[in-house]
Every structure is written in structure tokens, then in C-alpha cells.
Amino acid sequence: MSQPTTFEQAVADLVLANRILAQEGVLDGFGHVSVRDPRDRHCYLMSRSIAPALVTADDIIPHDLENNPVEAKDREQKLYYERWIHGEVYKARPGVNAVVHSHSPTVVPFASTKAPLRPLLHNAAFLGFGAPVFEIRDHMRNSDLMISTAELGKAMADTMGEKADVVLLRGHGNVVVGPSLQVAVFRAYYTEINARQQLQAMTIGHGDVIYMDAGECETTDKIMQSVAGRPWDLWKSKVGGS
Amino acid sequence: MSQPTTFEQAVADLVLANRILAQEGVLDGFGHVSVRDPRDRHCYLMSRSIAPALVTADDIIPHDLENNPVEAKDREQKLYYERWIHGEVYKARPGVNAVVHSHSPTVVPFASTKAPLRPLLHNAAFLGFGAPVFEIRDHMRNSDLMISTAELGKAMADTMGEKADVVLLRGHGNVVVGPSLQVAVFRAYYTEINARQQLQAMTIGHGDVIYMDAGECETTDKIMQSVAGRPWDLWKSKVGGS
Amino acid sequence: MSQPTTFEQAVADLVLANRILAQEGVLDGFGHVSVRDPRDRHCYLMSRSIAPALVTADDIIPHDLENNPVEAKDREQKLYYERWIHGEVYKARPGVNAVVHSHSPTVVPFASTKAPLRPLLHNAAFLGFGAPVFEIRDHMRNSDLMISTAELGKAMADTMGEKADVVLLRGHGNVVVGPSLQVAVFRAYYTEINARQQLQAMTIGHGDVIYMDAGECETTDKIMQSVAGRPWDLWKSKVGGS
Amino acid sequence: MSQPTTFEQAVADLVLANRILAQEGVLDGFGHVSVRDPRDRHCYLMSRSIAPALVTADDIIPHDLENNPVEAKDREQKLYYERWIHGEVYKARPGVNAVVHSHSPTVVPFASTKAPLRPLLHNAAFLGFGAPVFEIRDHMRNSDLMISTAELGKAMADTMGEKADVVLLRGHGNVVVGPSLQVAVFRAYYTEINARQQLQAMTIGHGDVIYMDAGECETTDKIMQSVAGRPWDLWKSKVGGS
């Protein structure tokens, strides 16, 4: 699963990623997806501030890592209020090339309890590298729960750390990263699926649930990264991509 | 998110609101949505008595705050049996400009237990201003559970009080209000989403759930009111609005 | 909500009833719906043995109350294996004019536990008249759980008794009746909705759930019978009926 | 429900089986379905490695029971990584003529707890013949949880034994078999439905759930095999089969 190598391909894939995650119920009217700009890894591409399902190529704007539009003509567009998530994660994690922020519906409940999200389904093996919860209340009182400043973006990236590929935002949603856009989309999707199945297993197992162990997660995540193109092709066909 | 300023715009938005809430599963064959008449704030606009998904502009009827049709030609139409909800809320709450009554599926279970609906998801911050339950049995024995008189409408509005933007009706549904139609629709939708996520958090957290605090709710609701147009644009595109 | 008065209207409505209940997820590949023949109340109309979503007017066959085809030309058609449900209910309950047998997904779990299905949602007020469980094992060992003989049909009707409008079949499904086809369809739909909401209320309320009382059920069921045409019109539009 | 007797019919039905199980939510972007080759029962037919919903007749490849392509022209196609499941099951179980491997969403939680999947719904009577869990960790440490070698395929088939028609794979999914493709598809579908209903019954019944007994399962499975064509016809119409 290599990263797209041209700007045009990256834009096309980013539009698909937005539409796929909306179609699959990971994104609703809010949330956003970004990918590093293949022309300059100190920039990333992301839509202007609209609902993900409505994003087209014309809406994609190059941002620098301080989350400002690179091009003068984009300065008048409304940008995502939480774009700080993206810049701070790209700065902190050189291996990350794509970031998904969503309000994935079954992940929010895990963000609002002490029950950790853990890897139950092989497709979600990356959860074994950690799924910490960012409690914004530890950083700001009376906040709107959103990552709306560079400071909050940095604090969130610190909670994520060097190994985790997902961070849960209490009362709000989650952020998932990957070495490529397809892997980040795959992980965002399977974070939601794993959350549903974990909730169900906790219900039927009364807490006695068998999770993947560290060795299994290590082995399995490599395989999953290599096959992320398979569901991508399916999802692409469902949103009308040719 | 300003209120529509012309009658024609208000009617068009009200048709969309009905179709959006049906499409998103908040309304089923029953329920209704109203908005204050931009020509006269002592009147409100609402469909004649049909399923919300089928409402067209021709079905919209101006009602006065005693819930009677304003225009002679509408006197022969069948009106919603529970229109009393609307008139009494508009009388009691000058800041309210739109009202949604639904049988939102996951809110009903909260209306039938002692577990209060509480703000878990940032989009539903307004739940922090209260989500009381109206127990009709305290006002009428052997009722049909519906708000079918001015007295019941007033009692329900009293339970809602001055601050809450939602009231749950035991064994029946809920009523959500907002300063604009878009905000009321946004809140009706996220009341359902919060209910689902709260139920899930209660299941996995065994009652140990982290809710938004009062300060967070205050800050966040303001932001949410300002962005209610975003999902509106998405939902509009899904129901075929241009 | 009057019964159709012509054979043609009854057939048209029965086709719609099959398609509506399949569309709304009450019926899957199995189950069946019948209505008394308006030409002869000692006969009922029901499809030959096919999946409900595929039923057309040509598939409707008049059956007598012994569950045999009335017309010679229908004798070669394959009939529903469980048609005994219908004949025995029509014989036992003169006020019943329509019968729905389904594997309504959330009702099955209630049929397989000691937790009774109870009226929580006003639309399902008729559950207050009883929702007994038929345990086929009390009548036949090593059965296929289906009502495949007149004796089992009669035993099931006895369990239903004179007042209940629904009987749950352990490990299998349920049977819902009404004074008209529209009311039976309405009740079959809201039996499923009530089951979902009751399950959710039991989860969040830890058993402390407020159900409708007997007086409320009596009052409310009358109203619900009078408005069963509202969702019918909506559902009809969804399955392409004009 | 006889097996298809020509190669062309088997291919057409196998394409439908893939699309049906994807449409019904049993298969997602992964999983696979196979059927014995009607020309040679020591071979089976299965798609090359693509998402099931996208399978066409051109993608079907004859495999021998060592899971190699029979025809030289197929040697360059990418094959399913877990094709070992199929060969080992066909070798161990002469009565099996079709195999479905899926990540059926509500079955995974049962595979990850000690709660056994048991027959609750009559359509899933075959669960009474056993639904053992294959714990790959007992055979390989640090695995990717997948059945990617002949040894693992054989160990899985040994866990399945001679009687069970389903085996759950911890942290991964399940494998369902049948004497015909239609029966295997029917069973894969109802394994998922039974899992959902069992989870719900366990929730409302607090563990006190009434399952089908051995005699009921024996009788009922025979009937269900005989009617597997009914939902097949429905599902076929939903995926556009004529």
C-alpha cells in the first residue's frame, strides 16, 4: 500500500476517503481526513470546512504544519476548526502520512468510560499498540471539548505518544493515523467495528473477554497493512469511484 | 444560524426538516415539526396531519398559539392531534422559534426508566441544561399518553421549565426546541445519538460514565448552535434538496 | 380503519402488507400475512408459499378455515407449511380479521426467556392485553418448532386466549392479530419496536422500567387503531404503492 | 436443494452466494465462499482474492484439495490467503459440498468469550450439532490469527470434528459448511441472526435462556435444509439475480 505519488492522485484518494468513511458510518456531518502532500511532506492536504460526504477535489486545500493554507487563494476559505489535530500529529510522528478525525459512533462510549478499547478482531490489531484517552479537562476547564488550538493539538499528540495509532477524545470522538491514506481509512473503519464487537463481547462474557496478545498484534498489523487495498476497492465501488 | 426571514423560505425549510428527520430515523410515521411564522411570531407553521416523510409545501398550515388554523381555507384540514405541544411551548418560551416532537427510538427507553439522559457527546451539550421526564400519569389517569389538550400542553411546558431544551414524555417520545429550525433539528438528531451512546457507555462502564460538566455544556452549546448548518447541508443533499 | 370491502381491494392490500412488513424488517424470507375474505368470512386470503417480499396479486389464494385452497385451480400450489396458524385463530377469534406470522427479530429473544414482553411505547398499547409465550415443547417433543398441524394451531390459539393480540412462539417468532389488516400490520411493526425499546430500557434501568398500566392500554389502543392508516400511507409510498 | 449439476450453474450460484452474503452483512471486504466442482469432487471452485461483493464469473478459479489452481492459466492469479480452510474441510468432511468463511460481525464476540453460541432460533437448528471455538494460540504463538497453512487448516478441521457445521475462530470469524451451497449460505446467514438474538436473550434473561434441545435440532435442521431455497430466491432478487 504505497502512498500516492502525485498531487492529483492524492487529491482523488482524499476525496474517496472522505466519501468512504461517510458511507460506512464512521464520519457523520463532522470530522475530517488529511494526507501529507506528496510534493512536500511538511504540508498536508485536507478539505475546507464542509461535511465529509460532500467533499470534492475543488475543496481540497494544502495546509502547512502550522495549519495555515499554503496558497494565497485559499486564505478566504473557512477551514476546519480542529485542523490543529493534523499539524501536531504530523510534526510529532514522522511515520504518519494520513490522519482521520471522526465521531465514530461506538468509539465515543469507550472514550467516556474507564473501559479501554482493546484489540479483539484481527483487523484491528493496531489497537494493541495502545488506544489512550485524551481528557481535555486535564488541560482546559469549561472547554468545548474540541482541539481548537495548537496547545491542545500538542497535548493530544503527547497523549497519543510514539506508538499508538489511535487516541480517543473524551466526549467527542477519536483520531486514527497510518503510514498511508488507505491504512488510516482501514484503521478508522475497524476501530468502529472492534468497538462494537468489544461492547458485545463484554456484554455476553461479563468482562471475561479474550483479546489479542502483543505478539499477535505485532504480526497481524503487518498483514493488515498489506491488505488494506482490498476493502478500499470495495468501498470505492460503493461510493461510485471507478 | 438565523431564522428564515420570509414565509416561503420558512415553508421550504420546514418541509426539509420533516424529511430530514424522517430520513435520519428520528421521526417515523408520527411526530411533527413546527417553526414560528416569520410574518407573525404569535403564529407557527406546521403540516396538516400526515406522516412527516410525506410533507410538501402545500401541507403547511399557519396555526395561532391556541393551535387553530389562521386561515379559513385550512379549517377543513385534519390537524395533528398533539398540536398543543407547540402552542404551549411557544407561549412559555419566547426564545424558542422551532419545536420538534418525535418518538426518537432510543430516547423512549430513557423516558421509561429512572436513568436520566445526560450529555455525553459534545454535539448534545444542550442536554446539560436539563432533560426532565414528563409523567402524564401525574396529571391524568388512564390517558392515551398523548398531549391532546391545552392543559396537558401547559403541564408539559411547565416540566420543561425555562432552561431545558428537551423534555422526555414517558412511554411516548420527546420534544426538542431551539432558537432556529436548524438548531432544533440538530438537537433532535443528536438527542437520539447521545441516547444510543449513553446506553452503550452505561453497558460497558457499569454506570461509571464521564459526562460533560456544566461549564463544558455552556461553552459547547454555543459552538454547536453556530455549526448546525453543516449537517443540515449534508442532510438536505440526502433528501434531494438542492 | 375499515376492512376492504371488495376482493380486489383485499388482495391489493394484502400484497402491500407483505411488502411493507418485509421492507420494515418484520418479515424476512419467511412468515406470512392473511386477511379474511371479504366475500366470505369463513375463508381467508393468503399467498402461496413464497418469500413475503416477492408476493404479487397472482400469488394470493383463498383458503378455507381448514386451511385448504377453496378453488380447484389452487390445489397444485405449494401452501405455507404453517397455514394452520391462520385457520385456528380465525375460528377461535371472531373479531380478528387479519393475522401476521413473523420471525420479528427482537421478539424472538423475548420468546426464549422468562422476561415478558410488556407495553412500554404507546403505539404498542395492545401488548397490555397480554403477550403469552407458546412453548411447543409442552405439546410435542422433538418438534421442528413450527405450527404444522391443526392440533398445534389450536393449542397456540388456546395460549393466545380471548384477549391477547399477540402470542410469542418460543425459539421461533410470533403471531399478531387485528380487527383489520392495517391494524394487524401496525401491531406487528410496533411489537418489534416495543421489544427493542424494552430491551434497551431493561439494560439502562436494571429492571426498573415504567410500563403502561391497564387503563392507559385500554384508552390508547383505541386511538392507535384509529390512526393505523397514517404509517400505512408512509410505508405504502416506500414500497412503491401509489 | 440439490447441488448444481453443471460447472456453469455452479459458477453462477457461487457468484450469487458471494454477493448475497455481502448484501446481507455476513461478509465485508474479506471472507470467501467455495463449492465443490460438479465435474470433480476432489476440486472446489472459489474466487481469486478480491472482495466478495465484487466477484464475477470470470474470477472463479478451480482449486484442487491442496488449494492450488487446477488450470495453468490461473497460476498467476492472487489466491485467497486462507484458502487452506476449504481444502482441509473438504478432505475431512465428505458430506460437505460448500464452505463459507466470514467475519460475520456478531459471531466474532462469541468467538472471543467463553459463552458458547447455541441454537435459539429454529432457522439455526444446526448449531445444536456443535459450534466449537478454534483457539489458534494453542497451535501457534504470535500468529496473525489466520488459517494460512495446511497445518492450521487441518487443526481447524479437527476442532470442527465430524458433526459440527460451524467452527468459530477466536478473534477472527467463523467457518460454516453445508451439503449444498444454498444450505451453507442459509446457515451462514442464520448463524449471524442467532448470535444477535442470543446476545439479546442473554441481556434480558440474565443467562436464563431457553435453547433448542437436541431432538428439536435434529428434526428442525432437516426441514430447514429443505426450505433453504426460499430465502435464496429473495436474496437473489435483492442482488439483481433474475
Explain this structure to me?
The structure is a homotetramer of 242-residue chains. Chain A is of the alpha+beta class and 242 residues long. Chain A is 38% helix and 15% strand. Chain A is built from seven helices and seven strands; from the N terminus they run αβββαβαβαββααα. Chain A has helices spanning 7-23, 84-92, 107-111, 150-160, 181-205, 214-227, 229-238, and strands at residues 32-37, 40-47, 60-64, 98-102, 133-134, 166-169, 173-178. In chain A, helix 1 packs parallel to helix 5 (181-205) and helix 2 (84-92) crosses helix 4. The relative contact order of chain A is 0.17. The mean pLDDT of chain A is 96. Chains A and B meet through helix 3 and helix 5 of A and helix 5, helix 6 and helix 7 of B.
Give me some keywords for this one.
homotetramer, 242 residues, alpha+beta, seven-stranded mixed β-sheet, 7 helices, 38% helix, globular
Would you spell out the secondary-structure blueprint of this structure?
The structure is a homotetramer of 242-residue chains.
Chain A: H1 7-23, E1 32-37, E2 40-47, E3 60-64, H2 84-92, E4 98-102, H3 107-111, E5 133-134, H4 150-160, E6 166-169, E7 173-178, H5 181-205, H6 214-227, H7 229-238
Parallel strand pairs in A: 5-6
Antiparallel strand pairs in A: 1-2, 1-4, 2-3, 4-7, 6-7
Helix pairs in contact in A: 1-5, 2-4
